[in-house]
Structures are given as C-alpha cells and as structure tokens.
Amino acid sequence: MLKGFKDFLLRGNVVDLAVAVVIGTAFVAIVTAFTDGIINPLLAVFGGTNDMGLGFQLIADKPATFIEVGPIITAAINFVLIAAILYFVLVLPATAAKKRFSSKEDFTDNQLLQQIRDLMLEQQRSGGGRHEN
C-alpha cells in the first residue's frame, strides 16, 4: 500500500501540479497587491461620497444591507489578469516548445515494436547480431 502511495506522489504530474499550485499562490499575492494598490483606488473614484465603497444600500439606515460591488469587480479583474498572464507566460511558450521538440510522428506501441523488430532483423542479416564462439 505504501509503495503505491509513493509511486503516486513521485509521478511527474503530481509534482508538476504541486509546483503550479505554489507558483499560482505566489502569483495571486502579486495580482492582489496590484488590484488593492491601483484598481481599488480607481474604483473608489466611481463610488461617490459613500464611505463604504462602490455599491448600493438596500435599506437607507442599515449598514448591514450595503451590497458591495467593488470587491466583485476586483475579483473579476484578478481572475482576468491571472488567466491572461498565465496563458501568455506559461501556456503559449509550453505549447510552442512541445510542438518544436516533439517528434513529428506519433506511433502506437505496436508500430514501435514492429520498427524495433525490423531493425533487429536488419542487424542480424548484416552480421551485426550475436556471434557464438
């Protein structure tokens, strides 16, 4: 049971996923700082004289009924920024590298085995096979 767990943890996809989560978490902090420092003050300009920020109040004298629109806009901007940067910085270059460095032909297992067999037969015919003394 522990061997299976070890194999699972050491699989390439799990390690790649762990690295992606750590990098993504660090990147979210950068984008959040950007939106808190630049986007939120810009949104506050549109909030008017209301101290609570961009939004509207359902009942005039109850602050608990204030619906904040600013954090929703900020979250949407965070999402779009993160998605765009990850796409252009990671996905596009990885796709281009995969196309450039991958083999032009994709073979099935049977096709590969047939090629190996044919190469071994050629070696035996040309005298490159095993020699018995």
Automatic annotation (TrEMBL):
Segments spanning the bilayer are 12-34, 72-94
Offer one Pfam family short name for this entry: MscL
What is the membrane topology listed in the Swiss-Prot or TrEMBL record? Multi-pass membrane protein
GO molecular function annotations of the record: mechanosensitive monoatomic ion channel activity
Kindly state which keywords UniProt assigns to this record, in alphabetical order: Cell membrane, Ion channel, Ion transport, Membrane, Transmembrane, Transmembrane helix, Transport
Question: Any idea where this protein resides?
Answer: Cell membrane
Output a single Gene Ontology CC term carried by this record: plasma membrane
Quaternary structure, per UniProt, is: Homopentamer.
Q: Which family does it belong to?
A: Belongs to the MscL family.
Function, in words = Channel that opens in response to stretch forces in the membrane lipid bilayer. May participate in the regulation of osmotic pressure changes within the cell.
**Protein name (database record):** Large-conductance mechanosensitive channel
Give the species this sequence originates from: Nocardia mangyaensis
Its organism's taxonomic lineage begins at: Bacteria, Bacillati, Actinomycetota, Actinomycetes, Mycobacteriales
Source gene?
A: mscL
